[in-house]
Amino acid sequence: MNFFCALNPADESGVSSTLYSLTGGLEECSSSSSSTSAAAATSSTMNGTIPTKLVDPVDDPLPGVGTYEDFNTIDWVREKSKDRDRHREITNKSRHSTMALLLSISDAFSGWLLMLLVGLKTGAIAGGIDIAAHWLTDMKEGVCLNGFWFNHEHCCWTSNETTFQERDRCPQWKSWAELVAGSSSGPFPYFINYMMYMFWALLFSFLAVSLVRAFAPYACGSGIPEIKTILSGFIIRGYLGKWTLIIKTITLVLAVSSGLSLGKEGPLVHVACCCANILCHLFPKYRKNEAKRREVLSAAAAVGVSVAFGAPIGGVLFSLEEVSYYFPLKTLWRSFFAALVAAFTLRSINPFGNSRLVLFYVEFHAPWHLVELAPFILLGIFGGLWGALFIKANIAWCKRRKSTRLGHYPVIEVLVVTAITGLLAFPNSYTRMSGLHIIVGNSLGDRAAGQGLYTALWQLALALLFKMLITVITFGMKVPSGLFIPSMAVGAIAGRLLGVGMEQLAYYNHDWFNGWCSPGADCITPGLYAMVGAAACLGGVTRMTVSLVVIMFELTGGLEYIVPLMAATMTSKWVADAFGKEGIYEAHIRLNGYPFLEPKEEFDHSSLAVDVMRPRRSDPALAVLTQESMTVEEVETLVESTHYSGFPVVVSQESQRLVGFVLRRDLLISIDNARKRQEGVVGASHVLFTDHTPAAVAPEAPPPLRLRGILDLSPFTVTDHTPMDITVDIFRKLGLRQCLVTHNGRLLGIITKKDILKHMAQMSNRDPESILFN
């Protein structure tokens, strides 16, 4: 089967709903237990027979026990318990041995060393991406005669004929028209440049989608929805692997260079998390513990934004506000350190040759006046409206891609969108330039309106419509595609239009500004309006607030513009929230059916645990194991006849008194290993979840299989009358996968994360079957 063809076209990551069959129908079940069991009792000796070595997974750990299958959720409580036990053991040993003390110090330092490596690796990769993308973007327009590997700017650095006013013009750089026709002006040279621009754009996009399709389907999209889901505890094997890192790095350069309406900022978060996940395998503490690994991934998300925008502090706040599910204080410090190292590494590489962390660093020094607060709030309203409209339009387009034949032809889709983008973008200089050029460029000066200004305004208005429409159909295609820069470009164009209008108003009506704006003074800065508009639109799409303001502050270096940015960003969020509470990443998580409990979503219904638990009245009885009365054959029959990920263990079928909970995966691995390693285990052997051998077992019976070591003796339980809002809070704050429902100690049923998500969808008049994964 062609894996790529089976992918869900609406899913950025390439995770398909068709893979649902791999996950099992019931929510992966198990809560953690830190308790340990005693060694197996030698019942054979008591019966007068030769003692047989009994395998207990606690005393003799089995490979695979305690691990998770693909498309399952981790057990946060068990993982944290494992780490506490590991740390306690290391601490106890360090008191008795110098070598153990050194190992303890090494273990404590390993987290900081890992952060150092993540920062160095991500910074180096980001520098390479910046250099390559700048070079390939310029290649669409021409080539350097001194060496084809030089971009336009570097090509003209060594030229003695370059002036400050025309620093991009030098004899060493030739446009394609100059190389072919010997001239740069006229209809034929224009046609040649047009065709070469289209050729390179189509070539780059074709290579990008082909590499993604052939080698790493998970390398498409921005990656942030999947990163958020993974950080909440979900497992998507291969999504943060080495092939995904390699292909995403290469195809990100190609996609950005093709001129598509996308950015590299979101994918850089994915790249940073791939680096962190790969480096985690060097340290057993993080390789063997999924919860500890997610602390590193949270820090890596901060590193990704740090190198994308040159904003280390904004990156840390972005990880805390937008993507992280569990963010302890220790992770905050390490995120800050890793972002610092990554920013220093990128600064050392100096990919843009301007001693800055970003290609376009802007500095505004003109003060703003209280009168301007009104247009800033207007930009916030526009950003909120645009964000709400974009989310609805993009999700509708992705659903159409998912439900029609369009989704079966990702390569054709990418080429068609690239062709449309190139055909419409080339004639307009504002759509031809990169998104960051649009955001920070300042080609419209403070002057009286003339024909040139009117032409520029018309071009900006057309560029605004073009960017709004093309971004809707671009985001979600099978190439790496970030949303930060396209959203900011929309806001920057709208802000610049408003800024020019305010500038002309101040130019002709100085008296309206109560003496603040004197004739001949540069009272209004259109570039500032562009930055405020960019922040407003990005905030409307993603619902970011604090981190966004800090990122924009670090990008502009203007502390005095904090208030305009805060006003526009907050207004944008309020307006967008009026049309829907979820941002674009939460919308894509919901579209793809991931089991993500949004911390910001409120549960305001009056239902009880008994209303949500399974089994329902019309369902078959809950599948359970008894603590000592079932044989190996009966257990295997029960497991094979169901697709549940775990089973409650009760005293007996009659009493239904709860003893604990056992994972399906641990159960199968333990039985399989016992058949290989424990002599005499057959289908008739009793499976015991107790320390003692029951008196009912006959002396001549085969040796029992003791599995108390894999039993969770402290599963989380609620009573049948527990309000669901409390239950939802328990799931969110403890990261549970399931919770057992009891009445006076008697087991009634089970509530899984998937059950809660389906119930919340049903209460919100959404399709509960949209929750595809456990």
UniProtKB/TrEMBL annotation:
GO molecular function, one term: antiporter activity
Superkingdom, taxonomy of origin: Eukaryota
Keywords: Antiport, ATP-binding, CBS domain, Chloride, Endosome, Ion transport, Membrane, Nucleotide-binding, Repeat, Transmembrane, Transmembrane helix, Transport
Topology of the protein relative to the lipid bilayer: Multi-pass membrane protein
SMART domains: CBS
Pfam families (UniProt xref): CBS (PF00571), Voltage_CLC (PF00654)
GO annotations of cellular component type: early endosome; endosome membrane; Golgi apparatus; plasma membrane; synaptic vesicle
Broad class of the protein's primary localization: membrane
Keyword field contains Transferase: no
Domain CBS: 613-677, 710-769
Places the protein is found: Endosome membrane; Membrane
InterPro entries on file: CBS_dom, CBS_dom_sf, Cl-channel_core, ClC
TM ranges: 98-120, 197-219, 240-262, 268-284, 296-320, 373-395, 407-426, 456-476, 483-508, 528-553
Family membership: Belongs to the chloride channel (TC 2.A.49) family.
Name of the protein in question: Chloride channel protein
Gene name of this polypeptide: LOC114480343
